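#random but structural
TW: two for the price of one
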Amino acid sequence: MSIFEYNGAAIVAMAGKECVAIGSDLRFGVQFQTLATDYKKVYKIHDKLFIGLAGLGTDAQTMYQKLKFRHNLYKLREERNIKPSTFGELVSSMLYEKRFGPYFVSPVIAGLEDKTHTPYLCGMDTIGAIETAHDFMVAGTAPDSLYGMCESMYRPDMEPEELFETVTQCLMSGADRDALSGWGAIVYVITKDSVVARTLKGRMD
Protein backbone atom coordinates (compact mmCIF):
# COMPACT_ATOMS: atom_id res chain seq x y z
CA MET A 1 0.00 0.00 0.00
CA SER A 2 1.21 3.49 -0.88
CA ILE A 3 1.97 5.79 2.06
CA PHE A 4 -0.52 8.26 0.51
CA GLU A 5 -3.29 5.68 1.01
CA TYR A 6 -2.40 4.88 4.63
CA ASN A 7 -5.01 7.22 6.19
CA GLY A 8 -7.37 7.71 3.21
CA ALA A 9 -8.89 10.96 1.94
CA ALA A 10 -11.24 12.50 -0.61
CA ILE A 11 -10.97 16.24 -1.32
CA VAL A 12 -12.79 18.29 -3.98
CA ALA A 13 -12.50 22.01 -4.77
CA MET A 14 -14.64 23.70 -7.40
CA ALA A 15 -15.00 27.24 -8.76
CA GLY A 16 -18.25 29.14 -9.25
CA LYS A 17 -19.27 32.71 -10.05
CA GLU A 18 -17.28 34.86 -7.61
CA CYS A 19 -17.33 31.93 -5.19
CA VAL A 20 -15.41 28.74 -4.57
CA ALA A 21 -16.15 25.57 -2.61
CA ILE A 22 -13.87 22.99 -1.03
CA GLY A 23 -14.84 19.86 0.86
CA SER A 24 -13.41 16.67 2.30
CA ASP A 25 -14.63 13.42 3.79
CA LEU A 26 -14.44 12.91 7.57
CA ARG A 27 -12.89 9.43 7.89
CA PHE A 28 -9.57 8.90 9.63
CA GLY A 29 -8.26 5.37 9.40
CA VAL A 30 -5.19 3.18 9.38
CA GLN A 31 -5.50 1.35 6.08
CA PHE A 32 -8.92 -0.36 6.22
CA GLN A 33 -9.48 0.16 9.97
CA THR A 34 -11.55 3.27 10.79
CA LEU A 35 -10.36 5.13 13.89
CA ALA A 36 -12.37 8.37 13.77
CA THR A 37 -15.27 9.85 11.82
CA ASP A 38 -14.76 13.56 12.52
CA TYR A 39 -11.33 14.21 10.98
CA LYS A 40 -11.44 17.31 8.77
CA LYS A 41 -8.84 17.51 6.00
CA VAL A 42 -9.63 21.09 4.96
CA TYR A 43 -7.91 23.86 6.92
CA LYS A 44 -8.64 27.59 7.07
CA ILE A 45 -5.78 30.01 6.40
CA HIS A 46 -8.04 33.09 6.36
CA ASP A 47 -11.64 33.91 5.36
CA LYS A 48 -10.92 33.87 1.61
CA LEU A 49 -8.40 31.01 1.57
CA PHE A 50 -8.60 27.32 2.49
CA ILE A 51 -6.27 24.39 1.90
CA GLY A 52 -7.12 20.69 1.75
CA LEU A 53 -4.33 18.26 2.62
CA ALA A 54 -4.74 14.65 1.50
CA GLY A 55 -2.11 12.04 2.32
CA LEU A 56 -0.45 11.03 5.57
CA GLY A 57 -2.37 12.54 8.51
CA THR A 58 0.67 13.43 10.63
CA ASP A 59 2.41 15.19 7.73
CA ALA A 60 -0.80 17.07 6.89
CA GLN A 61 -1.07 18.46 10.43
CA THR A 62 2.63 19.40 10.53
CA MET A 63 2.29 21.10 7.15
CA TYR A 64 -0.78 23.08 8.24
CA GLN A 65 0.95 24.33 11.41
CA LYS A 66 3.96 25.50 9.38
CA LEU A 67 1.73 27.19 6.79
CA LYS A 68 -0.32 28.97 9.46
CA PHE A 69 2.93 30.19 11.04
CA ARG A 70 4.19 31.46 7.66
CA HIS A 71 0.90 33.24 6.98
CA ASN A 72 0.99 34.93 10.38
CA LEU A 73 4.51 36.21 9.65
CA TYR A 74 3.37 37.46 6.24
CA LYS A 75 0.40 39.25 7.82
CA LEU A 76 2.61 40.94 10.41
CA ARG A 77 5.05 42.15 7.78
CA GLU A 78 2.63 43.11 4.98
CA GLU A 79 -0.38 44.10 7.14
CA ARG A 80 -2.77 42.21 4.87
CA ASN A 81 -3.86 38.66 4.17
CA ILE A 82 -1.90 36.59 1.69
CA LYS A 83 -3.40 36.18 -1.79
CA PRO A 84 -4.32 32.60 -2.84
CA SER A 85 -1.95 32.69 -5.83
CA THR A 86 0.92 33.87 -3.61
CA PHE A 87 0.03 31.23 -1.03
CA GLY A 88 0.18 28.56 -3.76
CA GLU A 89 3.76 29.58 -4.55
CA LEU A 90 4.60 29.52 -0.82
CA VAL A 91 3.27 25.96 -0.42
CA SER A 92 5.11 24.88 -3.55
CA SER A 93 8.45 26.25 -2.35
CA MET A 94 7.98 24.69 1.10
CA LEU A 95 7.38 21.27 -0.45
CA TYR A 96 10.26 21.62 -2.90
CA GLU A 97 12.80 22.51 -0.22
CA LYS A 98 11.89 19.21 1.50
CA ARG A 99 12.08 17.18 -1.72
CA PHE A 100 14.71 14.71 -0.42
CA GLY A 101 12.60 13.87 2.63
CA PRO A 102 9.17 15.04 1.52
CA TYR A 103 5.93 15.65 3.34
CA PHE A 104 3.58 12.92 2.10
CA VAL A 105 0.73 15.30 1.30
CA SER A 106 -1.24 16.32 -1.80
CA PRO A 107 -2.41 19.92 -1.24
CA VAL A 108 -5.48 21.46 -2.88
CA ILE A 109 -5.77 25.24 -2.48
CA ALA A 110 -9.03 27.14 -2.97
CA GLY A 111 -9.63 30.84 -2.48
CA LEU A 112 -10.81 34.16 -3.84
CA GLU A 113 -8.35 36.77 -5.08
CA ASP A 114 -8.44 40.09 -3.22
CA LYS A 115 -10.17 42.77 -5.28
CA THR A 116 -11.54 40.85 -8.26
CA HIS A 117 -13.07 37.96 -6.25
CA THR A 118 -11.82 35.62 -8.97
CA PRO A 119 -11.75 31.97 -7.85
CA TYR A 120 -8.28 30.47 -7.57
CA LEU A 121 -7.76 26.70 -7.54
CA CYS A 122 -4.52 24.79 -7.60
CA GLY A 123 -3.09 21.45 -6.60
CA MET A 124 0.39 20.02 -6.49
CA ASP A 125 2.38 16.85 -5.94
CA THR A 126 4.69 15.95 -3.06
CA ILE A 127 7.55 18.11 -4.31
CA GLY A 128 5.44 21.16 -5.15
CA ALA A 129 4.82 21.02 -8.92
CA ILE A 130 1.82 23.37 -9.25
CA GLU A 131 -1.16 22.71 -11.48
CA THR A 132 -3.83 25.43 -11.59
CA ALA A 133 -7.41 24.86 -12.71
CA HIS A 134 -10.31 27.11 -13.66
CA ASP A 135 -13.01 24.50 -12.94
CA PHE A 136 -12.19 21.90 -10.25
CA MET A 137 -9.37 20.11 -8.47
CA VAL A 138 -9.40 16.77 -6.63
CA ALA A 139 -7.02 14.86 -4.35
CA GLY A 140 -7.03 11.74 -2.22
CA THR A 141 -7.46 7.99 -2.64
CA ALA A 142 -10.50 8.17 -4.95
CA PRO A 143 -9.31 10.43 -7.79
CA ASP A 144 -10.83 8.45 -10.66
CA SER A 145 -14.38 8.43 -9.31
CA LEU A 146 -14.06 12.07 -8.15
CA TYR A 147 -12.81 13.21 -11.57
CA GLY A 148 -15.62 11.34 -13.30
CA MET A 149 -18.32 12.94 -11.16
CA CYS A 150 -16.80 16.43 -11.40
CA GLU A 151 -16.42 16.28 -15.17
CA SER A 152 -20.04 15.21 -15.61
CA MET A 153 -21.58 17.69 -13.12
CA TYR A 154 -19.45 20.84 -13.37
CA ARG A 155 -20.90 23.91 -15.09
CA PRO A 156 -19.22 27.32 -15.32
CA ASP A 157 -20.48 30.34 -13.32
CA MET A 158 -22.53 28.49 -10.71
CA GLU A 159 -24.09 30.47 -7.86
CA PRO A 160 -23.06 29.52 -4.27
CA GLU A 161 -26.05 27.24 -3.53
CA GLU A 162 -25.75 25.37 -6.82
CA LEU A 163 -21.99 25.09 -6.33
CA PHE A 164 -22.51 23.61 -2.87
CA GLU A 165 -24.98 21.05 -4.23
CA THR A 166 -22.61 20.06 -7.05
CA VAL A 167 -19.55 19.67 -4.80
CA THR A 168 -21.64 17.69 -2.31
CA GLN A 169 -22.88 15.24 -4.94
CA CYS A 170 -19.40 14.81 -6.45
CA LEU A 171 -17.74 14.30 -3.06
CA MET A 172 -20.30 11.88 -1.65
CA SER A 173 -20.52 9.83 -4.85
CA GLY A 174 -16.74 9.63 -5.19
CA ALA A 175 -16.19 8.70 -1.54
CA ASP A 176 -18.90 6.01 -1.69
CA ARG A 177 -16.82 4.22 -4.32
CA ASP A 178 -13.67 4.24 -2.19
CA ALA A 179 -13.06 2.00 0.82
CA LEU A 180 -10.48 4.38 2.35
CA SER A 181 -12.66 7.49 2.56
CA GLY A 182 -16.23 8.39 3.47
CA TRP A 183 -18.22 8.55 6.74
CA GLY A 184 -19.77 11.90 5.86
CA ALA A 185 -18.16 15.11 4.66
CA ILE A 186 -17.70 18.80 5.37
CA VAL A 187 -18.03 21.43 2.62
CA TYR A 188 -17.01 25.12 2.80
CA VAL A 189 -18.50 27.64 0.35
CA ILE A 190 -16.44 30.84 0.18
CA THR A 191 -18.02 34.02 -1.23
CA LYS A 192 -16.82 37.63 -1.12
CA ASP A 193 -19.06 38.26 1.92
CA SER A 194 -19.08 35.02 3.90
CA VAL A 195 -17.88 31.48 4.51
CA VAL A 196 -20.56 28.83 4.97
CA ALA A 197 -19.56 25.40 6.36
CA ARG A 198 -21.96 22.47 6.21
CA THR A 199 -21.43 18.97 7.60
CA LEU A 200 -23.01 16.12 5.64
CA LYS A 201 -23.99 12.65 6.69
CA GLY A 202 -22.92 9.82 4.42
CA ARG A 203 -22.87 6.06 4.35
CA MET A 204 -21.64 4.69 7.65
CA ASP A 205 -19.98 1.48 6.46
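TW: number two ↓
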Amino acid sequence: MSWVCKMELSESVQRGLQSLADASSFDQSGFQALVDVSFRSLLSARGDPEVLDQPELKQVDQILLKQTHTAAATFILEAVKHNADRSTISSSLEELTFSAERIEIFYCTYQTHKKELGRLLASIGRRTPRINDVSWRLQYHVKNGQVDKVNEPFYLMSLNTENEGSSEDINFTCTMEQLQDLVGKLKDAAKSVEKASQM
Protein backbone atom coordinates (compact mmCIF):
# COMPACT_ATOMS: atom_id res chain seq x y z
CA MET A 1 0.00 0.00 0.00
CA SER A 2 1.44 3.38 -0.92
CA TRP A 3 1.87 6.24 1.50
CA VAL A 4 -0.67 8.35 -0.40
CA CYS A 5 -3.36 5.72 0.25
CA LYS A 6 -2.33 5.46 3.89
CA MET A 7 -2.72 9.23 4.25
CA GLU A 8 -6.09 8.94 2.55
CA LEU A 9 -5.75 12.10 0.48
CA SER A 10 -9.05 13.04 -1.05
CA GLU A 11 -9.46 13.11 -4.81
CA SER A 12 -9.62 16.91 -4.78
CA VAL A 13 -6.27 17.07 -2.94
CA GLN A 14 -4.73 14.62 -5.41
CA ARG A 15 -6.10 16.65 -8.35
CA GLY A 16 -4.74 19.87 -6.82
CA LEU A 17 -1.28 18.33 -6.42
CA GLN A 18 -1.38 17.00 -9.99
CA SER A 19 -2.15 20.55 -11.17
CA LEU A 20 0.83 21.80 -9.17
CA ALA A 21 3.00 19.18 -10.87
CA ASP A 22 1.81 20.29 -14.32
CA ALA A 23 4.36 22.66 -15.91
CA SER A 24 1.64 24.17 -18.15
CA SER A 25 -0.28 25.31 -15.03
CA PHE A 26 2.72 26.34 -12.93
CA ASP A 27 6.06 27.26 -14.47
CA GLN A 28 9.20 26.71 -12.37
CA SER A 29 9.08 30.11 -10.62
CA GLY A 30 5.33 29.75 -10.00
CA PHE A 31 5.85 26.28 -8.56
CA GLN A 32 8.58 27.52 -6.20
CA ALA A 33 6.44 30.49 -5.14
CA LEU A 34 3.40 28.32 -4.41
CA VAL A 35 5.42 25.78 -2.40
CA ASP A 36 7.08 28.57 -0.37
CA VAL A 37 3.82 30.36 0.37
CA SER A 38 2.09 27.09 1.30
CA PHE A 39 4.66 26.43 4.02
CA ARG A 40 4.68 30.08 5.16
CA SER A 41 0.88 30.25 5.37
CA LEU A 42 0.82 27.20 7.66
CA LEU A 43 3.35 28.86 9.96
CA SER A 44 1.73 32.30 9.84
CA ALA A 45 0.13 33.45 13.08
CA ARG A 46 -2.71 35.01 11.04
CA GLY A 47 -3.12 31.86 8.98
CA ASP A 48 -4.01 33.84 5.85
CA PRO A 49 -2.20 32.68 2.74
CA GLU A 50 -0.41 35.28 0.65
CA VAL A 51 -1.01 33.17 -2.45
CA LEU A 52 -2.89 35.77 -4.44
CA ASP A 53 -0.24 38.45 -3.77
CA GLN A 54 2.71 36.62 -5.35
CA PRO A 55 3.84 38.23 -8.62
CA GLU A 56 4.90 34.79 -9.99
CA LEU A 57 1.32 33.56 -9.60
CA LYS A 58 -0.64 36.50 -11.10
CA GLN A 59 -1.17 34.66 -14.42
CA VAL A 60 -2.63 31.52 -12.74
CA ASP A 61 -6.42 31.13 -12.59
CA GLN A 62 -7.53 32.21 -9.09
CA ILE A 63 -9.75 29.17 -8.48
CA LEU A 64 -6.97 26.78 -9.57
CA LEU A 65 -4.53 28.71 -7.39
CA LYS A 66 -6.71 28.33 -4.29
CA GLN A 67 -7.36 24.63 -4.97
CA THR A 68 -3.67 23.95 -5.52
CA HIS A 69 -2.66 25.89 -2.41
CA THR A 70 -5.18 23.94 -0.30
CA ALA A 71 -3.92 20.64 -1.73
CA ALA A 72 -0.27 21.55 -1.09
CA ALA A 73 -1.02 22.63 2.50
CA THR A 74 -2.95 19.41 3.14
CA PHE A 75 -0.10 17.29 1.78
CA ILE A 76 2.46 19.20 3.88
CA LEU A 77 0.46 18.66 7.08
CA GLU A 78 -0.01 14.95 6.32
CA ALA A 79 3.72 14.58 5.63
CA VAL A 80 4.62 16.28 8.93
CA LYS A 81 1.99 14.26 10.81
CA HIS A 82 3.45 10.98 9.46
CA ASN A 83 7.06 12.22 9.91
CA ALA A 84 7.67 11.39 6.25
CA ASP A 85 11.20 10.83 5.00
CA ARG A 86 12.72 11.60 1.58
CA SER A 87 11.77 8.29 -0.05
CA THR A 88 8.21 8.47 1.23
CA ILE A 89 7.68 12.01 -0.04
CA SER A 90 9.43 11.23 -3.34
CA SER A 91 7.36 8.15 -4.09
CA SER A 92 4.14 9.92 -3.09
CA LEU A 93 4.85 12.91 -5.33
CA GLU A 94 6.01 10.68 -8.20
CA GLU A 95 2.60 8.97 -8.09
CA LEU A 96 1.09 12.45 -8.49
CA THR A 97 3.27 13.10 -11.62
CA PHE A 98 5.83 15.45 -10.03
CA SER A 99 9.15 15.72 -11.87
CA ALA A 100 12.39 14.86 -10.04
CA GLU A 101 13.33 18.55 -9.96
CA ARG A 102 10.00 19.58 -8.41
CA ILE A 103 10.20 16.76 -5.87
CA GLU A 104 13.66 18.03 -4.83
CA ILE A 105 12.37 21.61 -4.45
CA PHE A 106 9.42 20.43 -2.38
CA TYR A 107 11.56 18.15 -0.19
CA CYS A 108 14.20 20.83 0.52
CA THR A 109 11.47 23.27 1.57
CA TYR A 110 9.85 20.54 3.69
CA GLN A 111 13.17 19.85 5.46
CA THR A 112 13.59 23.57 6.21
CA HIS A 113 10.19 23.87 7.93
CA LYS A 114 9.53 20.32 9.19
CA LYS A 115 10.55 20.80 12.85
CA GLU A 116 8.69 24.07 13.22
CA LEU A 117 5.53 22.58 11.69
CA GLY A 118 5.89 19.49 13.90
CA ARG A 119 5.97 21.70 17.01
CA LEU A 120 2.94 23.60 15.73
CA LEU A 121 0.94 20.41 15.16
CA ALA A 122 1.95 19.08 18.58
CA SER A 123 0.65 22.23 20.26
CA ILE A 124 -2.84 21.92 18.76
CA GLY A 125 -5.61 20.54 20.95
CA ARG A 126 -5.76 19.49 24.56
CA ARG A 127 -2.78 17.64 25.85
CA THR A 128 -3.04 14.44 27.81
CA PRO A 129 -2.68 15.07 31.55
CA ARG A 130 0.57 14.02 33.19
CA ILE A 131 0.31 11.82 36.29
CA ASN A 132 2.33 13.32 39.15
CA ASP A 133 1.39 10.99 41.97
CA VAL A 134 -0.71 7.93 42.79
CA SER A 135 -2.29 7.11 46.12
CA TRP A 136 -4.41 4.13 47.01
CA ARG A 137 -6.30 2.57 49.88
CA LEU A 138 -7.41 -1.02 50.31
CA GLN A 139 -11.07 -1.44 51.27
CA TYR A 140 -13.03 -4.58 51.94
CA HIS A 141 -16.64 -5.18 50.83
CA VAL A 142 -18.41 -7.23 53.49
CA LYS A 143 -21.98 -6.86 52.21
CA ASN A 144 -23.68 -5.31 49.22
CA GLY A 145 -26.92 -3.28 49.09
CA GLN A 146 -29.07 -6.42 49.17
CA VAL A 147 -27.50 -7.54 52.50
CA ASP A 148 -25.70 -10.42 50.76
CA LYS A 149 -22.21 -11.27 51.97
CA VAL A 150 -19.56 -10.26 49.41
CA ASN A 151 -16.25 -10.53 51.30
CA GLU A 152 -14.08 -9.10 48.55
CA PRO A 153 -11.23 -6.54 48.61
CA PHE A 154 -11.20 -3.48 46.35
CA TYR A 155 -8.93 -0.48 45.95
CA LEU A 156 -9.72 3.23 46.11
CA MET A 157 -7.29 4.82 43.65
CA SER A 158 -6.44 8.51 43.28
CA LEU A 159 -4.27 9.82 40.43
CA ASN A 160 -2.95 13.35 40.92
CA THR A 161 -2.66 14.77 37.38
CA GLU A 162 -1.45 18.03 35.89
CA ASN A 163 -2.52 19.52 32.57
CA GLU A 164 -1.31 22.90 31.32
CA GLY A 165 -0.61 24.17 34.83
CA SER A 166 -3.79 23.02 36.55
CA SER A 167 -3.91 19.93 38.74
CA GLU A 168 -6.79 17.53 39.12
CA ASP A 169 -7.39 14.31 41.04
CA ILE A 170 -8.92 11.38 39.18
CA ASN A 171 -10.56 8.94 41.59
CA PHE A 172 -11.83 5.43 40.86
CA THR A 173 -12.30 2.02 42.47
CA CYS A 174 -11.12 -1.31 41.13
CA THR A 175 -10.90 -4.95 42.10
CA MET A 176 -7.59 -6.79 42.51
CA GLU A 177 -7.94 -8.24 38.97
CA GLN A 178 -8.67 -4.82 37.47
CA LEU A 179 -5.68 -3.32 39.30
CA GLN A 180 -3.39 -6.11 38.03
CA ASP A 181 -4.69 -5.50 34.50
CA LEU A 182 -4.04 -1.74 34.85
CA VAL A 183 -0.49 -2.34 36.12
CA GLY A 184 0.17 -4.72 33.22
CA LYS A 185 -1.07 -2.17 30.68
CA LEU A 186 1.04 0.59 32.26
CA LYS A 187 4.14 -1.62 32.05
CA ASP A 188 3.39 -2.34 28.36
CA ALA A 189 2.95 1.38 27.70
CA ALA A 190 6.24 2.18 29.46
CA LYS A 191 8.04 -0.41 27.31
CA SER A 192 6.51 1.04 24.15
CA VAL A 193 7.61 4.57 25.10
CA GLU A 194 11.12 3.30 25.89
CA LYS A 195 11.36 1.54 22.51
CA ALA A 196 10.07 4.63 20.67
CA SER A 197 12.61 6.86 22.40
CA GLN A 198 15.47 4.57 21.32
CA MET A 199 14.56 4.80 17.60
